[in-house]
Amino acid sequence: MVASATTCKLTLLTAKTLSPKFSFNFPVNKQVRTLKQASFSYLPFRVRASSQAASAATEATKVIPSEMKAWVYGEYGGVDVLKFDENVSVPEVKEDQVLIKVVAAALNPVDAKRRQGKFKATDSPLPTVPGYDVAGVVVKVGSQVKEFKEGDEVYGDVNEKALEGPKQFGSLAEYTAVEEKLLALKPKNLDFVQAASLPLAIETAYEGLERTGFSAGKSIIVLNGSGGVGSLVIQLAKQVFGAAKVAATSGTRNLELLKSLGADLAIDYTKENFEDLPEKFDVVYDAIGQCDKAVKVVKEGGAVVALTGAVTPPGFRFVVTSNGAVLKKLNPYLESGKVKPVIDPKGLFPFSQVAEAFSYIETNRASGKVVIHPIP
Question: What Rg value do the Cα atoms of the chain yield, rounded?
Fold first, then answer.
């Protein structure tokens, strides 16, 4: 169903599964501490050295411990509620799950909103290990798993529906248990950092385009085209769906990024008002929360996908239900290089700096994704 020109479709940043509730083993009076900061740098699109693959290949032969290191929070609030715990029980593996030794994990805006308690009515019980996106190595498989085996390098989003009973055990830990249907083999040309940056964002981007009936020959404008989702919408619209024209907005510093991703028209929102453009678009993909302005540039019979903010009546909401099938479908585009992950130049944080990574993503200034790596 395609919305009218005055309709905003609100795509919630969601992902994957209503999972069984895992019991945590947080021993009373165990020491909880925050690790020291470290410094690093990372370049977008750069495939990292093969040391990742070499070290990951040994994970399948290691003995799985009973306890692991993880970031947890036992109450809702700011970044100060995040604590590092060295004695969290490794999750049990259900028959349809695999246990992943996490190599890299990415943060999304929904991680912060969940920690702040904005979805507490449908959240899993506290305490929680946060994190949706994961890339790592399969170290154990459930009895009903058919597609994956120990040693496989996989990536995916650990939750089927991010706002409805997301897992207690997320990806910001040494190990996480994930349903087979939510995963795909990691693209061979991507390292774990790049793969971890993709699942929730690329599934949201793809689902939003599909919901609008986007197809070859149509036009689209992406608001906040330099963000984690927007940067992938540009590429998918052009490379997968065959868009005739892609326009996108960003600040001055990211205009060249938009062009490199395939935008035909890069708009500096600090100097131009996109709503004043003379042309209209078949689809407006609002990844910034400007639905009231977005409806002004959509064609009659077109559609607006909004990720955040108020919905202009008679808008309606829908939830993206993600799974590994979407990742498998898009893997050829990733392996060919037609679609590339975008990681913020300052967006690689070590496991010791998860709190700092959350603080950075909550500035809303990241270009592309924020990723946690290495994870012990």
Answer: 20
